[in-house]
Amino acid sequence: MRYDDIIILDCKENMNKGKTYTYFSSLPEMLNDTDRPYPPYHYVMKTDDDTYFRLDNLVESLKPLPREDLYYGYVIPCRSMDPFVHYMSGMGYMISWDIVEWIRESPIPKNHLEGPEDKVFGDWIREGHRAKNRYNAKWSMYNFPEPPTQCTHELWPDTIAVHLLKNQEKWIQTLTYFNVTSNLKPSKLYHIP
């Protein structure tokens, strides 16, 4: 509330019953303002709270990409490199503003709200013939290295996002690797080993 940078959705907390639709479809009404430039944002992102994003690397990766009809993220399944086959992982995906507005207006998302949220989102895009511009940020976006799977690799400098930071130790290891905490002043309010 202090910085006017948090959105509280008008829906019950849920994973697979329409929260993603509520989020994206609410944005045009909240953010379109006749007193400000249009579009209010070029891109909008949905991300999980167990994902660490390196925003400078994310911004750099977006510079050469189009600002319309874009769907950006880590394509699922893990072995796939083709962003047109399935959908982007829920660790974090970004869409251009025109797709946000389409979600609000189209009957396709409104009529298909339930199911695994990221897969359902991919279904909307496919059924609506949207996202002609797709960008697979694999392997700059990946799952935490442990336990090793087809979706993981070691932490590395060109990282955009690390997902599945499910406990404090994984957060500490990730933030330490990227030197995020090295300049923090000591405080009685937190402990960083």
From TrEMBL:
Keywords: Glycosyltransferase, Golgi apparatus, Manganese, Membrane, Signal-anchor, Transferase, Transmembrane, Transmembrane helix. It is found in: Golgi apparatus membrane. It comes from Salix viminalis. One of its GO terms (molecular function) is hexosyltransferase activity. Its EC number is 2.4.1.-. This is Hexosyltransferase. It is a single-pass type II membrane protein. The keyword Manganese applies. One of its GO terms (cellular component) is Golgi membrane. Its cofactor is Mn(2+). Belongs to the glycosyltransferase 31 family. Pathway: Protein modification; protein glycosylation.
